[in-house]
């Protein structure tokens, strides 16, 4: 009787009731007492099972995976009774649950990796845009002379209103580079575009003389002068930036930064929706350095300017040339060109 009371107290201790219940079942079988060797083997197996259960509990409390246990190590014989069979079923169910949880965790980890990769690309693209013109939005309201009808954007600018018909005999300024043909876009086509009406104030000066250049640009090295002109553009002071960039190109036309200056000069027109002057400037920049670092940007913005002028055919030719001549262009240029081709309904 004392033995049964002791066993009952031991069974109240959680998982410990399993081996005791099996021992009680064995003690109730007379033939099991006669076979002491078989009983010892069964007790050893129960001890191993108890250790495995303890290890499983520790693993589960730490959130780890349970080591796989061979089915033969936990499956009992007919003499072990139904308790071990129930335990084996429970362990198998826990193992399946752990496998399902592990699969879900791996799937979530993969999705998080994809999201991080896309986020890194998005952050890089946004950083580039902010470093060029998007940062200028914060300074745009404080500029009194900049007649911007819409917010400047890098890739998508609102469609311009209908452009007035060009005069057949009107001619504009020529370019420093010799005449040439970019696909089906001839220089004469661009020269025939009516230049915008002159506005009052210091905007759009003609060829700046030496005195004007000195007044527009500060003294310093070409890099310092370029930084000053680009800073005006970053502040959305487009009229002043236009004058400074023109002066820089005239004073330092052979400097490596001249290609950048030509591109940003065209952008001062583009963000103000002066697409005719923008197209001329981007074409001049491309012809001045057709293999330079800014050549893909020049072609992209040239095509965008032509599309805003409703010259869809010429714009599509420009986008095609960009794709053919610069297959290794940065992804931002490829994506922008694809978007503009679709907008212009290019085939």
SSE arrangement:
Blueprint: H1 2-11, H2 17-27, H3 30-34, H4 36-61, H5 71-74, H6 82-132, E1 181-182, E2 185-186, H7 187-191, H8 210-216, H9 222-234, H10 238-251, H11 258-271, H12 275-288, H13 295-308, H14 312-325, H15 331-343
Antiparallel strand pairs: 1-2
Helix pairs in contact: 1-2, 9-10, 10-11, 11-12, 11-13, 12-13, 13-14, 13-15, 14-15
Shape summary: elongated
* Largest pleated sheet: 2 strands, antiparallel
| Beta-strand proportion | under 5%
What would the average pLDDT be, to the nearest integer? Answer: 70
Give the helix/strand class: mainly alpha
Which CATH class of the largest domain?
A: Mainly Alpha
String of helices and strands: HHHHHHEEHHHHHHHHH
Could you tell me the CATH topology label of the largest domain: Serine Threonine Protein Phosphatase 5, Tetratricopeptide repeat
Widest beta sheet: strand line-up: 1-2
CATH level 4 superfamily of the largest domain: Tetratricopeptide repeat domain
Helix content: 55-70%
Give unreliable regions as ranges. 1-16, 66-80, 137-180, 194-198, 200-211
Identify the CATH architecture of the largest domain: Alpha Horseshoe
Q: How many domains in all?
A: 2
Number of strands: 2
What does the radius of gyration come to? 39 Å
Number of helices: 15
Distance between the termini: 96 Å
